[in-house]
Structures are given as structure tokens and as C-alpha cells.
């Protein structure tokens, strides 16, 4: 887990004996290998980069996968080079804690802080309803915002305990102050359906 001054990112999946991947479900026969996941949030509850019926959520998790056989540079130039799974996070009293993740967040509050986290399987980050999602071709949400992503955004949020969102809001940016927001504004549909 690493604080890069803009978000908290978890990577290293390429070193796992069995690297997590996604396939099928509208992605065709291609396999997309998990390369990293990161968070988007804000200080005021509109921390998701996607909305449902105009509604934002407390945070949004992006599980970033790269098409098998492509380098990162090639994926940036390929319309379906990445498959990103977006998951809305919402605070709830009965929310499920993510202990390993929360313990890591405590240790990476400053820019360039890093910590090894164990026992954080990507499947525990998912919402309970895996059948309802939106799929569209779009862009990365960070510069250069390449049109190289097949997006899958779950409709139903994952409910978390309040501590996770509170910890994200303590993460400091390059200026040494808590990141107010790291959310790209909602984009128009452009040519997307």
C-alpha cells in the first residue's frame, strides 16, 4: 500500500502465485489481470467519480486490470486495454470492516508512505450484489485520461463501517494537508450509451 500524494494505491499482484483476473461477462474471452486498486473520496460525502441517478457515494474503489499480453504503454493506446471495476462505498452502522486495509491506511497518511499489507484479498472489497452493474467503454479518470477502459461499475454499494471513510479522509497530499477530494468531475456521455 502506497500514498502517492493523490490517492492510496495497493499493487504487487503481479508477484502473486495466482494473479487475480476477470474475464467473460461482456469482456469476451480476454483475460484482464489485476494490476492495482485505489480509492477516490472527498471530505463531504460526494467522493465517487460515478453517480447513479445523480447520487454520489462516500467513496469509490477502482480495481484496475490490464488486458493479458499488453504492456502498460500498449494498454494506454488500446480501446479495451484496461478493464476497471468501480465499486461505490457507503458508510453504514452495520458495515463490514476491512481490517487489513484499515490497518494499512493508518500507516500511509503522508505522501510516499508505504506499508506491506497481508490478508487483503480483492474479493473482500466487493459488494454483496455482483449481478447488477453498468458497463461502458470510457477513459481513465487520471491524466492523460486515455480512452482505453472497459468500465464495469456495480450499481449497489458496498456498505462499510465509518472508520474506513474517516481514515481515507486523513490521507495527506503532497502539500502535507488532508486530501480534500481526488474525484474527477462526472463526465458527459459523449458517444457512450
From TrEMBL:
It catalyses: hydrogencarbonate + H(+) = CO2 + H2O. One of its GO terms (molecular function) is carbonate dehydratase activity. Its EC number is 4.2.1.1. SMART domains: Carb_anhydrase. InterPro entries: CA_dom, CA_dom_sf, Carbonic_anhydrase_a-class, Carbonic_anhydrase_a-class_CS. Residues 1-193 form the Alpha-carbonic anhydrase domain. Its cofactor is Zn(2+). It comes from the Eukaryota. Pfam families: Carb_anhydrase. Keywords: Lyase, Metal-binding, Zinc. Reversible hydration of carbon dioxide. Belongs to the alpha-carbonic anhydrase family. This is Carbonic anhydrase. It comes from Heterodera schachtii.
